């Protein structure tokens, strides 16, 4: 998808620059993409020097929750540096814009991001990306035209159709095989050993923001697999990816809590006291 050599986004109703959300420190100035911007993946903009690891979302920001049930697949329209010095991602969508407000959270391929601008008339929105988010997720691999999974944060009246997904990507994995069986699709993913310990057969995992059930874990290979039924294949981006492509992974938070409790000695101290 070609991108103009320069782009100025002029605020129109309801396009408004966000000024109240502290997580991304946005300013009420029109976004201007770099005059020399090309459709290069965002990883090209990553700084050469790394900083101390931090969560992609500020601890002071709102706490959101997702279910891993993808609402729609959006399409990347533009991405690159903005006039405020950060990285911006513009996505064409429709369903997730229903009732959207500035500062709302939308999961993009499982990454919880904040809406900094939106235009209901042309059906698109903009989210900001921090350098740490680009390092920790597969969003740096996106290009104009890339499809992305989208889900709005749940509300008190939402149905919990998947599992508790925070939108905090733990790490990325790499697709190592895709094997059809009937109208279903087996997908095997390799990830770090440090993350694999939280992945269990028949347990939950969010892959690019999609709530899935793990079928098997292959410790010797550092892999796990899952199966996509025909309906799911039509609704998420995973089948569109190739072997060797990255996916965002978020393990079930319950496993981390259990490990933390066991490591703290809480269980043994409780057993002694009882």
TrEMBL record:
<feature type="domain" description="Lumazine-binding">
    <location>
        <begin position="65"/>
        <end position="163"/>
    </location>
</feature>
<dbReference type="Pfam" id="PF00677">
    <property type="entry name" value="Lum_binding"/>
</dbReference>
<keyword id="KW-0808">Transferase</keyword>
<comment type="function">
    <text>Catalyzes the dismutation of two molecules of 6,7-dimethyl-8-ribityllumazine, resulting in the formation of riboflavin and 5-amino-6-(D-ribitylamino)uracil.</text>
</comment>
<dbReference type="InterPro" id="IPR023366">
    <property type="entry name" value="ATP_synth_asu-like_sf"/>
</dbReference>
<protein>
    <recommendedName>
        <fullName>Riboflavin synthase</fullName>
        <ecNumber>2.5.1.9</ecNumber>
    </recommendedName>
</protein>
<feature type="repeat" description="Lumazine-binding">
    <location>
        <begin position="65"/>
        <end position="163"/>
    </location>
</feature>
<dbReference type="GO" id="GO:0004746">
    <property type="term" value="F:riboflavin synthase activity"/>
</dbReference>
<keyword id="KW-0677">Repeat</keyword>
<dbReference type="GO" id="GO:0009231">
    <property type="term" value="P:riboflavin biosynthetic process"/>
</dbReference>
<feature type="repeat" description="Lumazine-binding">
    <location>
        <begin position="164"/>
        <end position="262"/>
    </location>
</feature>
<comment type="pathway">
    <text>Cofactor biosynthesis; riboflavin biosynthesis; riboflavin from 2-hydroxy-3-oxobutyl phosphate and 5-amino-6-(D-ribitylamino)uracil: step 2/2.</text>
</comment>
<keyword id="KW-0686">Riboflavin biosynthesis</keyword>
<dbReference type="InterPro" id="IPR026017">
    <property type="entry name" value="Lumazine-bd_dom"/>
</dbReference>
<dbReference type="InterPro" id="IPR001783">
    <property type="entry name" value="Lumazine-bd"/>
</dbReference>
<dbReference type="InterPro" id="IPR017938">
    <property type="entry name" value="Riboflavin_synthase-like_b-brl"/>
</dbReference>
<feature type="domain" description="Lumazine-binding">
    <location>
        <begin position="164"/>
        <end position="262"/>
    </location>
</feature>
């Amino acid at each position: 998808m070609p991108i103009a050599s320069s782009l100025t986004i002029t605020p129109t109703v309801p396009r408004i620059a966000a000024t109240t959300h502290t997580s991304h420190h946005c300013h009420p100035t029109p976004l201007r993409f770099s005059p020399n911007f090309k459709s290069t993946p965002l990883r090209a903009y990553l700084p050469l020097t790394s900083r101390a690891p931090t969560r992609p979302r500020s601890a002071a920001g709102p706490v959101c929750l997702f279910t891993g049930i993808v609402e729609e697949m959006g399409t990347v329209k533009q991405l690159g540096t903005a006039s405020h010095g950060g990285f911006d991602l513009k996505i064409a969508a429709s369903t997730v814009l229903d009732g959207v407000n500035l500062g709302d959270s939308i999961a993009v391929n499982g990454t919880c991001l904040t809406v900094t601008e939106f235009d209901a008339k042309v059906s698109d929105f903009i989210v900001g990306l921090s350098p740490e988010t680009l390092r920790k997720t597969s969003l740096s691999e996106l290009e104009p035209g890339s499809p992305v999974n989208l889900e709005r944060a749940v509300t008190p009246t939402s149905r919990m159709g998947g599992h508790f997904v925070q939108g905090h990507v733990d790490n990325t994995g790499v697709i190592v095989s895709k094997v059809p069986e009937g109208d279903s699709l087996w997908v095997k993913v390799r990830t770090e050993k440090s993350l694999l310990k939280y992945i269990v057969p028949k347990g939950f995992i969010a892959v690019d923001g999609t709530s899935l059930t793990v079928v098997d874990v292959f410790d010797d290979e550092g892999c796990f697999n899952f199966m996509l039924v025909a309906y799911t294949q039509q609704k998420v981006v995973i089948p569109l990816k190739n072997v060797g492509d990255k996916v965002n992974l978020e393990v079930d938070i319950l496993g981390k809590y259990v490990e933390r409790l066991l490591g703290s000695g809480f269980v043994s101290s409780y057993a002694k006291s009882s």
